Amino acid sequence: MVPPHVLLIEDETLDIELIREGLLAVRPDLTLTVTRRGVRGLERAQREHPDLILLDLALPDLNGLNVLTALKASSWTRYIPVLVLTNHAQEDTIWRSYHEYASAVLVKPTKTADFLNLLRTTCAFWFSAAALQGRLPSGCRPA
């Protein structure tokens, strides 16, 4: 089995380290690519075609919802599962994320242990129970 490739689009250093720790606890063999800007995240997603994208909504250059919309509009990235990360449990933000085809919306807990547990549980699901949509047969990808 090929180790999964995860693209993390997140600008907060502490969150990046917690997410890295949580992901590696579930899959120590995974490849994690980190970018702190939405534009760079879009470029890397197009170029690298990761198996899973973790997308923070509060980015310094673009609104995360705009990044999500662009990812889902592109024939190269629309089938990659995108898990949206947010600090706020605002219902309208959650609904807008799902309206833009987010695979899941994760509200970041304030306690480190809770955040790590959320990451482990969520990623264990995406890495084992769910078929990674990014691993489509070549006939299902754009030519």
TrEMBL record:
According to its UniProt entry, one GO biological process term is: phosphorelay signal transduction system
Q: Which InterPro entries match?
A: CheY-like_superfamily, Sig_transdc_resp-reg_receiver, TCS_response_regulator
SUPFAM superfamilies, per database record: CheY-like
Q: Which residues form the Response regulatory domain?
A: 5-123
> Key word Phosphoprotein present in the record?
yes
Q: Which UniProt keywords apply?
A: Phosphoprotein
Q: Which residues carry this modification: 4-aspartylphosphate?
A: D56
The superkingdom of the source organism is: Bacteria
Per the UniProt record, one Pfam family is Response_reg
Protein name, UniProt field: Response regulator receiver domain-containing protein
| Organism for this UniProt entry | Deinococcus yavapaiensis KR-236
